[in-house]
Amino acid sequence: MKWRDFIANLETTDASPMLGSLLRTTQFIEQKENAFVIACPNYGSRMFLEGKREVIKKYLSQYLKKEVELIFIIREGKGRVATETLPLIEFQESKEVAVRDAGINPRNTFENFAVSSTNQVAYSAAQTVAENPGKTYNPFLVYGGVGVGKTHLAHAIAHSIISSKPEAKVLVCTSEEFTNDLIELIRKKRTDSLRKKYRGLDLLVVDDVQFIAGKIYVQEEFYHTFNSIVGSGGQIILTSDRAPRHIEKLEDRLRSRFSGGLMIDIQNPDFELRTAIILIKAAERNIEVSIDSARLIAEQVRDTRELEGELLRLFAKGEHDNQALSPDFIKLEINNVKKSNHTNIPPNEIVRLVASYYNMSPLQMKGASRKTEIVRARQMAMYILRHHLDLRLVDIAFILKRRDHTTIMHGVDKLSSLLMNNPGIKNDFDKIIRIVNDG
């Protein structure tokens, strides 16, 4: 059977064009009696296709004019497959260096991007961009909330391009890095260096582009950079927390440029996608976890950025207690955490306790001061409100009088990093939590 011919036929009849698009990433391996073995590129796509099994079986049976079964497996590499492992990519040294120098996270690839109905359109479009940079969707802008996979997808495109063409001029940066580059080179009176760095690129990826809004000179320079790259056949990829039309203080000409290519909204991850992400993260770290255990974690954690942290927390606890990550162990640990969380404590009381610990007033913490000690206290409050009271980012922004939820997101991320790397901050956190729990 020619699997590609069947997919082409399916695309002419199926109401969901994205099913055919995802099937094109699979490979027919073999036929065992009436069962067809199909290799998927990653665990996410396998889970998605498992959910569409009956639909695919119906069309395949009609196409072959006989009843068939489907077996979905995961491709482990060229010519090899496995049921529970993720594909591995072998790089030459030149590719590894190119990936590093471009600012790409080597872990953010298409192969370990979990796919479900909430992001399948963005996933397929991103693959098209990677295959035809500068020729199809330009710019390619992905927007959505925190932790939906925008950055992963943008890095995956860059990773794919530079893997197939190591000599390509690729740069991945945040809007803050672009801004800092510009400020530094203005200070040194060397803006020509900025133009040499950015305007001759084959691919420019800018993460969190919404943060250039309101910065007049930055927007001016970015506008010309944008035009120069696109005009010479290069590709622009942007991520944002909102659609261009909703970015306040963004110049109309940039809004027009951003909207001139393909814009795709990634929705919050559904239960199946969160489960797939846990399984992928576990495989990356050689952590044994069953699909039932992964589902239990996915039921409790809705923020994808917290999934890996919760997995590692449970793994560390299991190692300490000499326990496997069984469903019973995970249920017990989740219940213990729920019991220890004092969710009835008013948010403003958390703010007061944190402020008191750092010898300042809540008013100071909610103010505009950028003094190091005040910023640190503010971030501590953000982190505790987020992880101890499980408040939404927008609610924390309102309580602490911050501009928007992205400020809270960055504050929480910063404190998370400090807790892992700064014993002093970890000691402060433990003391504050004891005060909160003693209540």
Topology diagram in text:
Layout (H helix, E strand, L loop, with lengths): L2 H11 L3 H7 L3 E6 L2 E6 L2 H9 L1 H12 L4 E9 L2 E3 L10 H9 L18 H12 L8 E5 L5 H15 L5 E5 H13 L3 H9 L3 E5 L8 H16 L3 E6 L11 H7 L3 E5 L4 H14 L6 H10 L3 H17 L6 H14 L6 H11 L4 H5 L5 H16 L5 H7 L5 H17 L1 H16 L1
Parallel strand pairs: 2-3, 5-8, 5-9, 6-7, 7-8
Antiparallel strand pairs: 1-2, 3-4
Helix pairs in contact: 1-2, 3-12, 6-7, 8-9, 12-13, 12-14, 13-15, 16-18, 18-20, 19-20, 20-21
Tell me what the structure shows.
This protein has 439 residues and is of the alpha/beta class. It folds into four domains: 3-82, DnaA, N-terminal domain (GMP Synthetase, Chain A, domain 3); 93-266, Rossmann fold (3-Layer(aba) Sandwich); 270-308, no CATH class; 347-438, Chromosomal Replication Initiator Protein Dnaa, Chain: A (Orthogonal Bundle). Helices cover 56% and strands 11% of the residues. The chain is built from 21 helices and nine strands. Helix 19 (393-399) crosses helix 20. The radius of gyration is 24 Å and the shape is globular.
